[in-house]
Amino acid sequence: MIYTITLNPALDRTLWVKHVHADDSNRIEREERYAGGKSIDVSKVLTTLGTNSRALGFVGGFTGAELEGLLLKEGVQFDFIKITGEIRTNIVINDIGDGTQTVFSAHGPEIPANKLEDMIHTIEKIERPEFIVISGSLPTGVHPEIYRRIIEIAKNRGARAVLDTDGDALKIGIQAFPDIIKPNIYELGRLTDRELKNMDDIISAARSVKEKGVKIVLVSMGAKGILLVSENERHIAVPPKVDVKNTIGAGDASVAGFVYGLSGGKSLKESLVYAVAAGTATTLMPGTALCQKEDFLRLVPQIKCCEFGEKLDEEKLAAESV
Length: 322
Hints:
Structural class: alpha/beta
Number of helices: 11
CATH topology: UDP-N-acetylmuramoyl-L-alanine:D-glutamate ligase
Distance between the termini: 27 Å
Number of domains: 1
Radius of gyration: 19 Å
Order of helices and strands: EEEHEHEEEHEHEHEHHEEEHHHEH
CATH superfamily: Ribokinase
Low-confidence stretches: 310-322
Mean pLDDT: 91
């Protein structure tokens, strides 16, 4: 079983307006509400791709009840710990006029110490974990040390630990040697305290993290694809040009695609292709909706992937496509 852990889940309230005008009334043309939170997104994509997963985390209040209802509607399995506080609501505004997307992310409620202990005990008792994905921001007042603790538990249970977060949470989390991390370029730069100006800088930074004990480093680079660095393999996978409608959740979908591949017995290279296909498929969806299976399957053969160090021109990438 694949488990995902979201300590700071959210309800994403997504709005579409024709134009955003300051100091004036703005009419909402359309509104959608989505169950959000990075690891919850991973569970949603895995469910869409036909792989069982179970989402763990905290829920509370009317917003938490709505989030659970939305997940039930999508067929996502979950086992949340109830809190008294209201979980956060993020606001996403899509300006139809200029195509921009603006996100307002809330902090979320404080989590009582006894509920954090309940979460630790829940993770210690999960059955036959194959992967445990930990991602996203931390709730108000929770120290990043909890990510290191969760990763230690995951590894002691024989699971492959996947960490996708930023800042101190990432710096402290990697001290427990997660099997996989997936920073974007900016997160990798903050993790290594480097300015990453070009591909050589990115590769060097990824290698430096791997040398600290992380087995697989995935670096998401937007339209330029994803770089994979492991002990024996270095690949880069590039998506085709698409009409991007949304970038929210694309990184989470990439994590789901990679785990989907590995859990199905695929190689690192094949799983990397799945990661890029899932992330790219998500950019085709409006608002904060995630990838659809038909888009994922259609994109997989279009992803160009080769071992890094080879010439990354169109001809070579086409020849090395999976």
